Amino acid sequence: MSIMTIALNAQEKIAFKVSFPAPQTHYAEVEMEISGLKGDYIDLKMPVWTPGSYLIREYAKNVEAFGAVGPGNKPLTFNKVNKNTWRVNTSKSQSIKVNYRVYSFEVSVRTSLVDESHAFLSPAGLFLYPAGKLNLPSTVTVVPHSSWTKISTGLDKVPGKSNTFAAADFDILYDSPIEVGNQDIFEFSAAGVSHEVAMYGGGNYDKEVLKRDMAKIVHEQTKVFGVNPNKRYVFIVHNFNSGGGGLEHLNSTVLGASRNAYNTGPGLLRFLALVSHEYFHLWNVKRLRPIALGPFNYDEENYTTNLWIAEGFTAYYQNLFTTRAGLQTPESFVAGLATAISSVENQPGNKVQSVSESSFDAWIKQYRPNENSANSTISYYSKGSLIALILDLEIIKSTQGRAGLDEVMKAMYDEYYVKQKRGYTDKEFKDMAEKIAGHSLDNIYNDYINDVKTIDYSRYFEYAGLKITNANARSNEPYLGVTTSLRDGKIIITQVARGSGAWNDGLNVNDEILSVDDYKVKKTTAGSNELFAYITDKRVGDKVNVSVIRDGIEKTMEVSLLRSPALRYVISTVEKPSDAQLAVRKRWLKL
What we know:
Shape: globular
Helix content: 25-40%
CATH topology of the largest domain: Neutral Protease, domain 2
Mean pLDDT: 96
Strand content: 25-35%
CATH superfamily of the largest domain: Neutral Protease Domain 2
Number of strands: 30
Number of helices: 16
């Protein structure tokens, strides 16, 4: 049954129209027509979050000028029931029309933005839905500003209607961003799928290079699952002076990029890694998903302890696939792992918050960091990618190269998305991984996923004939334990590291540093660098007098300099790897 047939057979029909009569004011004008109604009233709701971005964003705060009319444009009364629900008294009208405006001026991949150059529509923050009826189909007619000529979206076009698109239900609608403007569009085909790339903001990209390299990533990822679930896919790319980030959708993605970084090796690789990350979400998250992530509750948080799989595994695979696609060398990939491990192990919060807890608390911590976050949290992206790494190596080793994490992901996809058509529980993922590994994975789960014990990296890298060493192991460098920034011509403490001298002896975030001993800190960026150079010239165990201004009062504190705990890992090959080790390495990196 086609989408349009579903729409025609529905008892209630919903049609949106969105326009931009004055885009320089940053408003999208929305008209919502609802027919086939019964009853005295209808509740219309705005989601409070958007899937893939685990934060309550309160999209209703941007809604203005709400109004409703019945047949003959007769005004209908309404009242706001709660923060994101409008109750319209229909007076038993079978059809009504609702109008409202949405202020749209936040640069991100998860929020709408309208200005004189384009409109990016993030549907969860734009379109209302009837309470309890997320299953209803809808159409969206886009009325571009007179200066705009193009529309890019993963939604299906409605035959015979200009600039009109259909969604089988609100989950599909909210999962289908729309770009309206004069974007540069090019296409490529890979794995039997037609791909559209819509570039907003210009840039020094080479279309032919991007077509070639993006296609390689698509092919490599499709190999893992044996099937690409789409016939058409859309990349919406927002190019800014300095941009980044991405958000996955069912058959599209929105990427943030730096417009002038494409013509450098590192800049191009960063963009391709982002492409790899968001594209892998086609399978991991959008289809193979933790059971809490769908069907969605758009009114409140949807909790899961498995974002370390949903996002962390994707972060691991993004670089593994650029390596398999020949876009970076295996040596570069392994060096990146050393950097990633150093970053995680240098964060004090890694010894405080487990990666499963990090997943559950994403709603209150991941997107709302403060000055103490580094001391108390760890990212399920970065730590999760390291869990994926050790699971991959463990499974390859224990199966003598017959299977790896690829086989776990495919088996999970086939079982829970294709066969059972639902999400998986934490236990179900663990059971599948153990089934393919051929043994218990309790040690990894108990110590590294649900606890905060330090991963035994040496054990897992040894499987592949690699060794990991801390290049700072013999360092005896003192450190103060603060991070500073130049703010309004002042050197301000922005972070105090847990367990450092500064932490133990009372330096605070927001203190303005005036001097250390007799050294007067210059109120410049260079002065901040000189401050840390002064500390480096001291010895571990020395005490320094730090003078600060705190809340307008000058204070001097004696601070003990401790040994810097900074780790700098390096990964190298063992001198004489065995055949078994070389086999693991070959299977792991697909050499």
